[in-house]
Every structure is written in C-alpha cells, then in structure tokens.
C-alpha cells in the first residue's frame, strides 16, 4: 500500500481525502498567516471548532481535519487565491444564515403560540375546570362508565392536573426553541428535509465550479455552469421561503392547535355528552 498521504482514504465512507498534494511548508505558513489576518479583521470562518495553531500542526491530509478547513486549504493550494480560500471558510456560515432566515420567524411564531397555549391552559385549569366539576356535582351526573354508556376514555374529560402538566411542557418547549435558534444550527437544519440539503449541495457545487474556473485561468466553459448553479441555488432558496413556512405552520401549528383544542374543550364536551346520556338513561 502506498504511503503517499494523498492516496489514503477516510475510515468514514462518506468522507474522502483530497487527491492533490499536501501544501509545501511555504504554502502552509502563508495560508495560516492569511487565516490569522482574516481572524483579526473579524472575518467569520468555520474551522470546525479548532484553533488555527492546532490546524497548522498538521503535516498531511487526515480525516480529523474539519471539512471546511480542508476544502479551503485545497482551494488555496490549487488556485493560489486567498480570497477563494476565505470564501470557502465562510460558505457554510453563509448557507446556514440563508436557511435560518427562511424559518426563524416561523419558529419564533410557534414559540409564542406555545406560550399563549400554556397561559390558556393554566387559566382554563384554574377557573373553568373547577366550574365544570361543580356543575357535575350540582346535577349529580352519573359517570358514563357506571351505566355502561359511551367510551370510558372520555369520562370526566381532562383533569386540571393534566392541563397544568401540558402548560409546563409548552413553556419549556417555547424556551427550548428560542435557545436552539440562538445557539445552534437548529433553524437551518429544520428545513433540510424540505429542500435545505439540495440548496446546500447546489451552493457547494457552485463554489467548486468557481474554483475550477479559477484554477484553469478562465480558459473553460465552467463559468456558465457556475452562473447556472448560482441561479439554481437562488431559485431553490426562493421556493424554500414559500414552502418551508407553509409546511411547518400546517404540520406543527395545525397539530398544536388541534391538541390545544382537544385539551381545553374535552371537559366541556364530556359534560355535554354526560348530560345527554343522563337524560336518555332517565327516560328509559
């Protein structure tokens, strides 16, 4: 087996190492000097949580290198352009920022909806549920289970304890959404299954075409492919901005509204059902 580091393969079948030679010592030092200068000027870079000093110690391609760093180093070695290298380091952040703008407002809306639902359930459990129970006691309603009429699962509806528990879950869910949006890539990853992955792959392909064009000194027709991929990525982002909020609101907002209505109105529906069954039972 060859000892050439460029011929090594990653243990992870989804991850392959670059086939180009590892940069020379001069290229390596120049690349990291550019990274340090960019970091000092506040350029956002995705280094996979590693420090520049730690990455500079690498002397060969390894699967432990962050993917964005490796791709940026390849761009610098093959094209000699520092702007492309820095653009590659910013690409993941740019994609995440674009996808986050698609769903951030939807998730914030859903978190507010959870807060309102929690308040509504607390108010209902505090005031409405005791009133319904008092009405049951005043009218001495027979539970349906005692006369064998109707499903026992609806007997007496939802108790106040369950409403308080559901309100607590909604409050924690709202807080979790806000924290995830502010500290993780949750908003960007939440649309991956809707079309976010296709948008991400198109942006990456567009950059690869741009790098190829630069490496060939524009003596190719890859510029047309780059423009096409950029246009395709923009079109996919526009579709995401229309479809993603609609799908999330229908699935999560609609499902939440149905669950909220069932929790709140189940005691009232159960009371009406018991009244009707009691009248029927008393006339027999």
List key phrases describing it.
transmembrane helix, single chain, 9 helices, 284 residues, 74% helix, mainly alpha, membrane, transmembrane
- Number of domain units: 2
* Shape, principal axes of CA atoms: elongated
Radius of gyration: 30 Å
Tell me the span between the first and last alpha carbons.
Answer: 91 Å
Number of continuous helical runs = 9
N-to-C SSE series?
HHHHHHHHH
Mean pLDDT: 77
Strand content: under 5%
Total strand segments: 0
What is the structural class?
mainly alpha
Low-confidence stretches: 1-13, 144-155
Protein described:
By secondary structure, this protein is mainly alpha-helical. It folds into two domains: 1-80, no CATH class; 82-283, no CATH class. 74% of the residues lie in helices and 0% in strands. It has nine helices and no strands. The longest helix has 62 residues, at 222-283. The N and C termini lie far apart (91 Å).
Q: How do you describe this structure in short?
A:
By secondary structure, the chain is mainly α. Helices cover 74% and strands 0% of the residues. The chain has 2 domains: 80 residues, no CATH class; 202 residues, no CATH class.
């Amino acid at each position: 087996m060859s000892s050439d580091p460029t011929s090594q393969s990653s243990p992870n079948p989804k991850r392959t190492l670059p086939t180009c030679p590892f940069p020379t010592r001069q290229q390596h030092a120049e690349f990291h000097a550019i990274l340090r200068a960019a970091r000092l000027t506040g350029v956002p870079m995705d280094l996979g949580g590693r420090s520049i000093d730690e990455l500079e110690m690498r002397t060969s391609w390894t699967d432990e290198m962050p993917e964005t760093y490796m791709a940026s180093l390849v761009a610098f070695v093959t094209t000699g352009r520092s702007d492309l290298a820095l653009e590659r380091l910013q690409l993941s952040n740019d994609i995440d920022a674009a996808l986050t703008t698609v769903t951030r407002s939807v998730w914030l809306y859903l978190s507010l909806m959870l807060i309102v639902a929690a308040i509504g359930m607390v108010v209902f459990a505090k005031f409405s549920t005791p009133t319904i129970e008092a009405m049951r006691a005043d009218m001495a309603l027979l539970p349906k289970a005692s006369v064998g009429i109707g499903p026992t699962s609806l007997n007496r509806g939802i108790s106040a304890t369950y409403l308080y528990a559901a309100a607590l879950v909604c409050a924690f869910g709202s807080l979790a959404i806000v924290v995830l949006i502010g500290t993780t890539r949750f908003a960007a990853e939440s649309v991956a299954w809707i079309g976010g992955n296709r948008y991400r792959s198109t942006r990456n392909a567009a950059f690869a075409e741009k790098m190829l064009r630069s490496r060939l000194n524009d003596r190719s027709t890859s510029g047309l492919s780059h423009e096409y991929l950029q246009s395709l990525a923009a079109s996919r982002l526009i579709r995401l901005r229309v479809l993603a909020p609609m799908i999330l609101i229908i699935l999560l907002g609609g499902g939440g509204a149905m669950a909220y209505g069932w929790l709140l109105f189940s005691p009232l529906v159960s009371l009406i059902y018991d009244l009707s069954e009691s009248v029927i039972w008393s006339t027999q």
